[in-house]
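Dear Dr. H.,

I hope your travels went smoothly. While you were away I took the liberty of generating a structure for the chain from your last submission, since the lab meeting agenda had it listed for discussion. I wanted you to have the full record in hand beforehand rather than looking at slides cold. The sequence, exactly as received, is reproduced here:
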Amino acid sequence: MAFVGILSLLLIFFWQGAPTMAATNTERVGNGPALINPYGIVITGDDDAYVIDRGSSSVFLVDLSSGDRTVISGPERGVGPVTTEMRGVGIEPSLDSLLVADSNLKAVIRINIMSGDRTVVSDATRGTGPNIDVPRGVAVDSTGNVFVTDFSLDAVVEVDPTTGNRRVIAGPTSGGNVGTGPDLKQPHGIHASVNGYLYVTDVGWPAVIEINSTTGNRRLVSGTGPVLDAGSGPELSSLRGLTSQGPGTILVVDFNENEVISIDISNGNRKRISGPDVGSGVDLGLPVDAAVTSSGQIVVCDFTPPSVIAVDPLTGDRSVVTSVPKIGLQTPLYVAVLPSGRIVASDTGRRAIWLVDETTGDRAILSAADERGGGDAFTLPLQLIVLDDGDLVVVDDGTDAVVRVDFSTGNRTIISGKGVGTGREFISPRGLLQKSDGNLVVFDTGLTALINVNMKTGNRVVLSDASHGTGPLMHNVNSIIVLDDGTIVVGDAQSKLLTVNPANGNRQAIPVQGGDVAITEPWGLAVSSTGLVYVTYYQGAQAAIASVNPDNGMAFLVSSVSSTPAKRVGGGADMRSPAGCGVEQSGSLVVSDFYYGTVLRIDAVKGDRSVVTSATVGNTVDLDVLLSGSSNLYQSAFGLALVVVTLFLLF
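The corresponding predicted structure, in token form, is as follows:
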């Protein structure tokens, strides 16, 4: 009888405990504060590794041997402007200061390694010359010259480290294009070589371009796009950081393909060093930068799962240097609400689509390679929509395709892209909506275009771009939605909010006006039952959701977390990086926060915030349990019955 009682206790433990045992794709390595969203890395000659972390607004010193993490600068260490959107990092020749590019501050910031103090080197108020707009990469040459890539200016800007004065050394200016050779189109990473040349990864082409730092003349090193094509080897997709691997060779990381690639500068030939098909060990998630140690080991900064990964340059094998894994959702970027009220979320960290119970917060994988469903694996699943038949459609910026997900099986089927359908191939699809006729519209950041996609054939036709339609150009779009009258609303990092006429592609800016609303880089979009557009955004010390009337631009804060009391709206759960947005039948909003790995519910009237699911709210369960109804109620009833039986048998 005692044996049976003990067995019952074990059943209770496994029944109640098993749902919380979420599989993680990284291990916990190293002590210290956790990385949230690391975005850049630089290593000194003594193998000190400095990592900039967008999520925590901090700079970390990472011990490459133990994985221990120490904050050297951040909100609680050092004085000066808080860096909230660090994108690139370099180190000055003196080795006592870092230089970082911050896209929210639109500035280059110097960070003292010893004190953590932060001072502005160059911004709109310090230095002369063209203002920095959307900085991405920073490089410092051996003499201390500072170079910044600007995603919006399509240029490389030299910054005087003493005065902050700025001048375009390659790219367009008011006086014409500086330098000859291929134009820059969304330059990102930058590396200053010892030979006086700069090497830039360009997301728009995609390509690697060499720049003479004196004349600005440019030479295509390697590329695989329809316009710039040079060198042989693996295709390039969405390039981020780069570094030198020795004389004549550079390393680049591909954000979409999860790879590290070496490129021969002389002929542009490419070779996979590490990736899904090369090397063993932990997978690269979304690699954003790389550096090389004095012994030649490659160290990769992985945006999500937030970690630093060591790569063997000979075998491509990968091991975790430092990481603190998240439980449950890792990097939820977009959400949608099903007719049943359940929530679906795309998770770039897990490369998966989750189904979330809107009441209990329990969650289960709906579709992901090796977990549920067949077909091509997700690489970078982004905006998603729900079809009338209950299936989902997702844009995948990694596979460069539009994917249909069968709700009942999790199977993934490409409906456009990667050889399916005719027309311009996708380069970097991000935004997605369905029109009233059942067909789709996709925004592609690489093509900087809205594309009509035939739902049945996958054929693609340009709806609006620089050559189709008039009005402000689109650049870096995160979300698109459609209004009841068919008008398309676009959230653009440069042009903010635009409406697009689906008949002729004409674009018009929405004149957002509202004293407390300052939408700098709109992320998620949703439409209320009354036609208002909800916009998520975060800038500096404010994370917010605003409502905007698309007809006149009148805007109001719906919910806001801010260091400025006057800009706070609503109470409850914290919010740091609101991204995707959906509307429930009750009128409440559901918003994903990729900083915390949570899904929030927001009262659209009061602005109050509550957690729907997180590492501490809801369990990770089997999908069958989630689909069967209230998993928590069932578990509780079953557990209670087992307790009663156990007590009876034991006593």
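Two observations you may find useful: The longest strand covers residues 166-173. The CA atoms of residues 52 and 59 lie 5 Å apart.

With kind regards,
E. W.
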